[in-house]
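Now for one protein, fold included:
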Amino acid sequence: MFIQEHNCETGEIKLRELTGEEIAHSEKIAAQFAAEKAEAEAKATAKAAAQAKLAALGLTVEDLQALGL
């Protein structure tokens, strides 16, 4: 893996190989992103399932809020 380093003062652009530490950090960030994405998808799926169950009972989220639930 490579990275471009830009020096804004001189306009110089360097291409260098990532260090092991930088690669590990990048992989850690990617894993965190994947976990957060999976969690968000699971929450969305659970919300949709709950709303479908309410709809099957003839209720809406607003109905539950009106009941204080």
